[in-house]
Amino acid sequence: MTGDTFDVVTFGETMIRHSVAPGERLETAHETEMRAAGAESNVAVTVSRLGGSAAWLSKLPDSALARHVEASLRTHGVTPVVARSDEGRVGVYYLEPAGEPRGTNVVYDRAGAAIRTATPEDLATDHVESARAFHVSGITPALSETLADTTRTLLDRAVAADTHTVFDLNYRGKLWTHDEARETCEPLLDAVDTFVVAERDASAVLDYDGEASTVAADLAAAHDCETVVVTRGAEGAVAVHDGDVIDQGAFPADTFDPIGTGDAFVGGYLARWLDGASVEEALEYGAATAALKRTVGGDVATVTPEEVDRVVASDTSDITR
């Protein structure tokens, strides 16, 4: 990294995650484990840990919890570039991990978070304009109308500066409806170079149905995206890049904590692609990173390049090119 130029700059909210032990209930638990957690910062951490330089843009109050978030990201080599707010708070979410039939539950407590008022004037947008890639997810514009406008502006400034733009739809049903997400996110796609979307969300939110390769090709054509990646959970991912279809299987993993797997995939993909790899190679690297994340507690992929290389070399995913 030279000066303040980063490989990847992300923008979004990072919360404090409180987790009870597996099998415990929030209503009866006596203690929780505290970690920093946020989709965009998770991607930044993954890029940083895999050899790239990364910054995270956000808005935080001057508080102990805000300092905890910043310190957590610095631990992983990410540079927080934070606007200070005299009002607002750090958002929190509570995780109650469980197996079927109950399933894992997430409880948000993020109303009034300082980031919800973040405008382009608050933020050091020069970092977006000088970065090699700018990443944001659909979680950010879901938080407020102000953030929806700010997300649009940052994407436009990135495009104007020839910064590669990356958008992960990352739909969260506890934040907004399918219709609300479509109305806000679909217009953003014309400013996106690499679009990542779960197969289920491409259908439910964007009304694109069919084979994953067809969905990816149709989205790429509709919005002139350079690359569209459709993720399929345990079935891996399919990408369309410059008209070519790449089918990448998932690597098997024993799941300890699945939260953040998608962010690890995106971060691993970007780290490898920005290092000069092809989309095929980057997809494989992202899939390997995602598999490793499932073995790690917390939201972030605390992994090393050597570990990812070892998973890739295992050749245990189902890949079709």
Automatic annotation (TrEMBL):
Coiled coil: none annotated. The keyword Transmembrane does not apply. Its EC number is 2.7.1.178. One of its GO terms (molecular function) is kinase activity. InterPro entries: Carb_kinase_PfkB-like, KDG_KDGal_kin_Halo, PfkB_dom, Ribokinase-like. Keywords: Kinase, Transferase. Residues 7-301 form the Carbohydrate kinase PfkB domain. Belongs to the carbohydrate kinase PfkB family. This is Bifunctional 2-dehydro-3-deoxygluconokinase/2-dehydro-3-deoxygalactonokinase. It comes from Halomarina salina. The lineage of its organism: Archaea, Methanobacteriati, Methanobacteriota, Stenosarchaea group, Halobacteria.
